[in-house]
Protein 1
Amino acid sequence: MMKTIDKIGGLLVKPDETVTALLHGAGNFAESVAIVLFFSTTLWVSIALHINRIASAALTIVPLEASILASRLATPAIIGGIVFIGLTHDLVNFLAGGVVVHFVASVLDGVGDMGQVIVLNGYTWVALVFLLAGSIAVAFSFIAGLLVLLALLPLTWIWHIYLLARGVSESHGITMGRAFIAAISWDLLKILVLAVLAKVV
Amino acid sequence: MPQGMSRERIAGIVAVTIALLAVAAPLLAPPPDFGFLKKLGITGGREALPIDVGLGVPQVLSIPVTYNGSFSGPAALEIDAQSSIVLLQEGGREINVVVRGGHDYSVSESGGKIKVSASSVVVVVTAPRGSLDSVSLKLMSSLVNGSVSAPLQLRAVSTKFSITLIAGDGSSDLRLSSSAGTLVVVHEPGSGVKLSVSAARSVVVVEGEYSRQIVDGHAEIGEGPYTVSIDADNSYLAVRVTGR
């Protein structure tokens, strides 16, 4: 029986086999949620700490004692707020994304279980490991780290989409092309909504 | 690879380690280096920068303002000095601050904004001989009208253009070319020497606790003590001292 650590690693080094295994009984909802929470929490805590750290350093440029005091008071709130918003965002992505991807896959003649897509969607959060690696780079070299992070951003997204498409293709019996469309549908929908909101506002 | 450990497990351990390190890294890493901002002309420093001032030697400290904007809200100069300090703001509105005594002193501008359009703020530190051992200056400000906050950093200016005139020296001429920096003429109190200044551009003459400005002209100033601070971009400057 595969352990969680093996599934995490498997999705990085043996994605096809691991996705197949997850769709055939190796995956479960609780573990999927745990993976989402682990990678999401570490990412957003890391981001919050970076923001706090950079803001602290920036205060040496904005020399206001009041700002420092405000920063000290606000630090726990800022970090907590960022982590809370980030986690909420990721949990919505996890659940709503799974539903939308399943729906689009069904429209594209796919037949499968929505629960499987949601569970698989959670496992794809392991792709955040690339962003987390970039976050380490930012900590030790600000500019170079940001460049590394920018380079890893598309890789993270591609890896996440690939895993999802691979799973949807197998679970819904559709081609990889259609599964890819289904996999990116949630992100496209978000972009569309944001564009409409931007135009309205 | 440890015996019996699969590639997946190793990759999983690495991934989890990376995730945990990503949390620890911002806590363990040194503060980010914003040195690149300085290369862009944005300098800063909230901390008070101690400036060693030699005994009895007046110093001119230039505070480069690399951003044109306006101060609003708290804009204060904190000075911890053992003697008098005069702050001059080049261009626009002048601020004259005289601080006496060896204690923390804070001066806040109130009742409006302080416009800064000059390239530098000049702080002139004057002290009787032997009375000033050290001075620590901290200029605190916040720029609101702009996306970038302009940090102010104290920077000691070379004193190679400073001349000290001693009673009985007769006359002395000094000519500076453009961008020569800030010139300080120090005059011994009570020597009866008169100072004559002419310059291509504005000259700020500080006498004791007040200042007056001579613009594009020539002026004869009475007995000292006084310190003359002149814009760095004066294209022509002549200082003549006459007296005994």
Protein 2
Amino acid sequence: MSLTELEFQGETTGSGPVQVIQGRSPWVLAWRRLRQDKVAVASLIVILLLALLAILAPVIAAWVGHPPNTPYTNQGLSSTGLPVAPSSTFFFGTDDLGRDLFIRVLYGAQVSLLVGFVSTLIGTVLGVAVGMMAGYFGGWIDTVLARSTDAVLAFPYVVLALALAVVFGPSLLEVIVVISFFSWAAIARVVRGQTLSIKEKEYIEAARSIGASPMRIMVLDILPNLIAPVLVLATLAIPTAIVFEATLSFLGVGVQPPTASWGNLLSQAQAFYQTSWWYLIFPTAFLLLTTLAFNLLGDGVRDALDPRTERLFAAQRKRGRARSKGAKPAATVEGAS
Amino acid sequence: MTSPQAATPAAAPPGEDDVLVRVENLVKYFPIRGPGLLARTVGHVQAVDGVSLELRRGQTLGLVGETGSGKTTLARCIAGLIPITSGRVIFDGHDIAGLSRRAMRPYRRDIQMIFQDPYGSLNPRRRVGSIIGDPFAVHHTASGAARKRAIQELMERVGLNPEHYNRFPAEFSGGQRQRIGLARALALRPKLIIADEPVSALDVSIQAQILNLLADLQNDFGLTYLFIAHDLEVVRHVSNQVTVMYLGRICEQGPKDPVYEKPRHPYTAALLSAAPAADPDAAAARQRIILTGDIPSPINPPSGCRFHPRCPKAQDLCHEQDPPLETKPGDVPEHQTACHFPVQPGEDLTTTSTIAAADASTGTGGEGSSLTGGAA
């Protein structure tokens, strides 16, 4: 400590180097760590590719020449009226109406990613606001907000979604509203806990002694410390939202045909899985790949933002290896990460 | 880089205009809530119980006492960070106790705090420039290039390299972080700085640098300090006036030299005897007063004089009557002591120490905890 102090004094008294020193922000450091993580990078590439395919779906449809809702009754259906298998005309085969499954899966990706991102965004903003207010203000505000959070978490969400679909009619908007409504509570609970602990830090006291308003303290002093856990939660909330959308569409209370969504594709494919494997396999594979990629990315983001957890896991792995090797201690720590 | 000795201006006679802060009978009780949803209040932590003191302009008041004596709570009450239970805090002629956040705002500029923990008091996610510039932003006093210039001037003034404007707190050492905290406190040119154990988390060599910087800044800006510490030598070095607290009350206060050289309260005497002396001969010759037991719980403080269960001079009167804080015969008028049986100069308190202390000193290993004066 004293050494650095001395060093530093020497710098100021003499003519120090006149160059602007830009501190490496925690975000830059986290990004560097994330780039080291091969699985996370692979997941990110998969997600970006998928997003690109979804955005370019109309372009691809035009290029292939198959609009998503056009049935090709001659080429797209066999003589017995069944879907045709994947070929150079129909990359993923066709569905029971003779529509191009490849194009429909891409359009389904649009819906899935849209619902995933939008409802997670709404849910996160809501959850952070509620959790931060509950944690910061405490008292009756906390009681009200924390109890409503618990109530939402205890709700049978499929039942509510069914009820809402009956009342308002199933639509994309309804799906987003329902998923947002059920995703904020989990985030609010974590944010509340984090806020409770950050609130007791001396720098919050320092901000209050300066005269900063509660709003300013929450936005400038608490929020930056919440971004790491919230980012992890949000990354992991996206695949949940995508699966939720698929579930709702599968049950018929989500996105309605003829609009393609992975959920309603799966629902329709149920009747044909014995004769047309591709009808079930491709939407399932896309759904699986997407959720897996988001989950793995979420893990990577968590490890990058909080290196301590990674070290914890590494230590556990090391311990596990030591146990499996018997009394011989594990010498290679490097391999654990 | 700073003068080796802290300047201690001679104490002027107290006039009304001299007093920057007057605390009158300040009481702070924290309620203890019972279990269950309705959370009934089942008791109170009597953190500060009827404290009155005065801070004079341009001077330093040292506040000492064991952990749990209510020093920090008192500081936070004066700074208006927590609402007080009763009493008055008069700052510059205005009662600021119980003001709303909005009404308190103009006074925030005049009262600033320096915190104990140089790691906890700076937001790890914000750049140093943003932290020091926070007061300017909150009070809309400077913006843009003017703010940046002001921040860099402040950094230079407290001995930081202004080029480090864009760095994060994690890139600084403990002493440098405390300088950052000091720059933030100075930003609004306050009249009063409340320093809550500003050096106790630092290396001894860095402590001296920070203390000298504090003294320099006091001279330059005419600051008034309320300096909280449990290191008696540090307090002696920086203070003009000293107040000794025990369990939420003041047991002795007065100008530095009389209190240190002629302590009248047995607690002050015990604290001073426990403080390490720099001179080994003096240390060897010193008679240490051993206090038994721990500081009692502030939830249920002892009756009468709060110090009586641990006091070597305690008599029946002590647990029946609360001694008033008054000037004892033979002391200077400002030197006040709350004790029925004040220590006489030259009196040896070690001879009247209790049995447990005798056990401890003979090395028979008396059961239970026989603790020393508590000052680290």
